[in-house]
Specification:
Aspartate Aminotransferase, domain 1; 13 strands; elongated; 11 helices; six-stranded antiparallel sheet; alpha/beta; binds 5-O-phosphono-beta-D-ribofuranosylamine; seven-stranded mixed sheet; Rossmann fold
């Protein structure tokens, strides 16, 4: 598995950033921190990152004004970043940036979300007489502290706690939670079960689709239970292949050879199945274009569906 290339964005001391950098150095960690940046050019954590030999982009959001996000995007592109981890990054992110990086920005928040979004979370927990506080790693969406929760850790509240003492203890928990959850998220594109779920969600959008395995491999068929014909089959490390793939019906060997020659990182000729027009698409990659997979599924569905269904589809196409 390629290590995911992570950029950490900070505004302050960067203790979570440090935890992410150190964990990322382990050989078996599925990510590495390749860039640290933020909105304040003199943030303390930037000097630490530089001393640790991590590339640093010192950007001044105030001075750059409207150009800031474009400059940051340029830095992220230059460093070939796959994922962005926010760690005490205090700037509100515009929708255009969130959309561009949809599903690829994570954040750590010092509360058990959805409780206590925003600032002063430990004070709020104490004021409410809570028995536990904690931290959450979540995906970033355009709504503050509201994206999908990827992982949480609870931290007990002691009767003697002040907001500061509780913050200190939650921070210890944060430093352990963040690298662990980021590692899990970074390896998700290679997880066969997760890949199958994505394909299943796309296949289920097509008419009269049922699950239909093929020689023991998970697959999808179209038509009723008895007569259903496979239009997609999972190919997990298929006969010596290194990737988790999906088999779909192509038009024939000419098209298949053309695609495989042009994009061998995406397409492959599946053993045994290739001769009957099945094309392999590698899905255990970080840059899978799921819209393209959806198009392949639809094409494959059309060439497998009974005429009564394809006729309806053709009529729908005209509108
Ligand atoms: C942490 O408490 C984190 O949960 C919050 O901001 C703080 C950042 O601290 N988002 P540090 O800069 O990582 O030390």
């Amino acid at each position: 598995m390629d290590k995911a290339r992570v950029a950490v964005l900070i505004s302050g001391r960067g203790s979570n950033m440090a935890a992410l950098i150190y964990a990322g150095r382990a050989d078996d960690c599925p990510y590495e921190v390749v860039l640290v940046s933020g909105d304040k050019p003199d943030a303390l954590g930037l000097s630490l990152a530089a001393a640790e030999g991590v590339r640093v982009a010192r950007l001044d959001a105030r001075a750059l004004g409207a150009d800031y996000w474009e400059k940051l995007n340029r830095q992220l592109a230059q460093a070939k970043v796959d994922l962005i981890a926010l760690a005490g990054f205090m700037k509100i992110i515009p929708v255009s940036f969130v959309d561009k990086w949809a599903g690829r920005i994570v954040n750590i928040h010092p509360s058990l979300l959805p409780k206590y979004k925003g600032l002063h979370t430990q004070m709020k927990a104490l004021d409410n007489g809570d028995r536990v506080s904690g931290a959450t790693v979540h995906l970033v969406t355009s709504e503050l502290d509201s994206g999908e929760i990827l992982g949480q850790v609870e931290v007990a509240i002691l009767p003697s706690d002040t907001a500061e003492s509780l913050e200190d203890r939650v921070l210890i928990a944060e430093h352990q939670l963040y690298p662990r959850i980021l590692a899990r998220y970074a390896s998700r594109p290679y997880d066969a079960a997760w890949i199958e779920q994505q394909v299943d969600a796309l296949a289920a959008r097509l008419p009269e689709v049922i699950r239909k395995s093929n020689h023991g491999a998970p697959g999808w068929g179209v038509g009723n239970e008895k007569a259903a014909k496979n239009f997609a089959i999972m190919a997990d490390h298929f006969h010596g292949e290194e990737s988790v793939g999906l088999l779909v019906r192509a038009s024939g060997p000419d098209e298949m050879n053309g695609l495989i020659e042009a994009q061998p990182e995406i397409y492959f000729w599946p053993k045994y199945y290739g001769a009957s027009g099945w094309l392999g698409i590698r899905l255990s990659r970080r840059d899978v274009d799921w819209d393209q997979v959806a198009d392949w599924l639809e094409r494959s569905w059309r060439s497998s569906a009974p005429p009564r269904l394809t006729k309806l589809m053709r009529i729908a196409d005209q509108f």
